[in-house]
Amino acid sequence: MFSRGATLLILLGLVVPEALRSSSPAREPYPAVILPAGAGTISLKHKLLHLNRTVLMGRRHHKWRELDMIEFMKPIPVQYFARIARARFGISEGKKRHGHASEDERITRRWLQERLKLQGCSGRSLRVVTERMTVQLPSGKQVSSHFERPRTYVLG
Amino acid sequence: MSWVDRHIASFWRRVADNTLPGRGGLGVVRIVACLYVLLLVAPDGRWINAVPPGFFNPPRFSVMHWFSRFPPAPVVSLLDALAIVLACLVMAGVRARASSIAFVVVGALLSNIVCSFGKIDHDGMCWAFFGCMAFSGWGQSLALVPDKPSRFDGAERSLALLGVCIGFAMSVVGVKKALGWVDFNTNTSGCSSSTRFAASSSCCGSPC
Questions:
Q1: Is the CB of B206 less than 8 angstroms away from the CB of A42?
Q2: Closest Cα of chain A to B117: distance in Å?
Q3: What is the pLDDT of residue B145?
Q4: What is the reported pLDDT for B131?
Q5: Residue B159 belongs to what domain range?
Q6: Long-range contacts of range B154-160, CB-CB < 8 Å, 24 or more positions apart?
Q7: Are residues B67 and B57 part of one domain?
Q8: ipTM entry
Q9: pLDDT (tens digit, 9 = 90+) per residue, B56-67?
Q10: Residues B131 and B159 grouped into a single domain
Q11: Between A28, A53, A108, which is nearest B61 by CB?
């Protein structure tokens, strides 16, 4: 049905992309015959569940307020937010490897400012923070929450 | 025939025996697959036009990494329309072999554009499915313009290859999930825990 050479090619076509993904998620090729394999676990020690949540904040009435991330990102599906935030919205060092840097950055800053204004914020500062929550099990009651690793972007 | 060739032939024989469809079933598979694509996961990349260029951050090993920014709006709209028309042609059975191959090329390219934010959506199996089925002869029955029999067509070969792709991908992720989740530790959310919960999309879900 398939010769030795064809079988070897098929094997390489399946194994090489998987090997690249296994070596580092950043090296995952696309498109490839790969399925999602998220297999992380979360600590439940002492019946306490520790979760991280990325929160987007803007200045409203001189105070930092949490923004509606889905509305803010529209029409971009919210599942892409984490990667976009990790790349610092393309308005810092993430831009340097592509061309058109200054013009792209200006358009991107303006887009972010408009999104802030739509949510009633001043439109000049955007903050991404990680909320660390501790939830009691099995009641599901939140016992503690604090924000850390704030990253502030001055847009205008 | 060498020992290696004998084992390779035996492997593919066993895969083919387990993946060969019933007579006439391929036309139905073609229509159902295209209905699924058109009704539930229709290609839609037009929203890319509203995204600022600073967000362009394609994966290193993807077609879009060769470009420096999102394609112009008319190109994305054209690819969108083309993908939907091709899916309709495959469903109706109009030169289904060529239409399927074109659908894979256009659809994968469109999907590449949409995955230009650094996150990859794992829809590669969809393109593997249409790519393999293009050569299965699924355009020869229940078709408006049936494909002529060709030496490239072979249901046995196509479905065996698709079966191997599915088996490989499922096995790899199955092993990875087993290694992560089967930890025999009641203090984690692995399989030994009695606690089950769903994390929201904004939660990273990683262990703290």
A1: yes
A2: 6
A3: 95
A4: 96
A5: 155-208
A6: B155/B20, B155/B21, B155/B26, B156/A1, B156/B16, B156/B19, B156/B20, B157/A1, B157/A2, B157/B16, B158/B132, B158/B133, B158/B134, B159/B16, B159/B19, B159/B20, B159/B21, B159/B132, B160/A1, B160/A2, B160/B12, B160/B15, B160/B16, B160/B19
A7: yes
A8: 0.81
A9: 989 889 999 999
A10: no
A11: A28
